[in-house]
Structure formats: structure tokens, C-alpha cells
Amino acid sequence: MPDRPLALYLVKRLELVIRARMDEALRPHGLTTLQFTALTALRSRDGLSATQLARRSFVTPQTMNEMVRWLEKHGHVARRRDPDNRRVLLLTLTGPARALLERCDPLVEAIEQEMLAAVPDAAHPQFRQSLELGYAALSGNPEETP
After folding, report:
1. What is the pLDDT of residue 88?
2. What percent of the chain has pLDDT over 90?
3. How far apart are CA 103 and CA 126, in angstroms?
4. Which of 56-60, 99-103, 110-114 has the lowest mean pLDDT?
5. pLDDT in tens, 35-71
6. Nearest partner of 33 among 45, 18, 44, judged by Cα
7. Which of 12, 14, 36 minimizes the C-alpha distance to 24?
8. CA distances to 11, 20, 33, 44, 128 from 16, in Å
9. What is the DSSP string of 29-49?
10. Does residue 142 register a pLDDT over 80?
């Protein structure tokens, strides 16, 4: 038994506190961390299918289908048929969703800055690279970036 926690445990603990802080910050704006993540993924690459968005948002396709219905009902996304495959619906952010993200971005950035303030400035690039390398090693997607 190791005398200190596994790195996996530390990463999970960090993830949980980040999610709790983001949920708290986003709640007054009517969003959860998962919804915010999905909307920011769409902002980065508009016109994704629900399946593609699920992969980029770290949720199952079933969870994403429920989330898409909620996001559409609240005017955050619109769906349109894929011209190349009429059975696929592509998601697009609405203007109000883009404005909502602009209001929420500083809240999330403040949480990140608070976390990074505990890491020496010179170590920020190495910290980010270590997280990216760990993801690549375990995901099987070495070229994929957020």
C-alpha cells in the first residue's frame, strides 16, 4: 500500500471539487457544469451531432440526448438535418446561448485562476502538458485536443 495517494485519486478529487465549484457558479445562470461543457464544445465546433457532442462533453449518448432536449427547450441549441445524411441532426448554438456563455466564461475562468494560483507560474505549461499527456495515454486519442 503506497504511503501517499495515487495520482488517479488526486485527479478525481480535483475533478470533483472543480465540478462542485462550477455548478455553484453556473447555477444562478440556469446551467450545470455538464450543460456548460456541452455548450462550450459546440461553440468550439458548431454543427456536431449529439453523438459527437457526447464524446466531446464526456457523457454517454443517452445522457446527451436528454441534455439536447433540455437545451433545445430552453432556447440554447437548434437542430437541423445534416445535408450529407438526412437521418443525422446537427446542433447549433443560438444567439442567446452565445451570450449566456460570454456571461459564464469569466466565472469558470476565475475558478481556473484560483486553482492555478496554487501552482508556480513557471510550472503552468508543464502542469497543462502533464494533464494532456495523461489524457492521451489513457484515452487512446493522442492527437485529440480539447
Report:
1. 85
2. 82
3. 29
4. 56-60
5. 999 999 999 999 999 999 999 988 999 999 999 999 9
6. 18
7. 36
8. 9, 6, 11, 24, 18
9. GT--HHHHHHHHHHHHS-SEE
10. no
d(CA 122, CA 125): 7
Largest Cα–Cα distance in the chain?
A: 57
In angstroms, the CA 22 to CA 104 distance is: 10
Note the pLDDT of residue 144.
57
Residue type, 25: A
Strand 85-93: give its sheet, edge to edge: 48-49, 85-93, 77-82
Shortest CA distance to 47 belongs to which of 100, 91, 105, 108? 91
Residue carrying the nine cell digits 466531446: 56
pTM confidence score: 0.87
Residues across the chain: 146
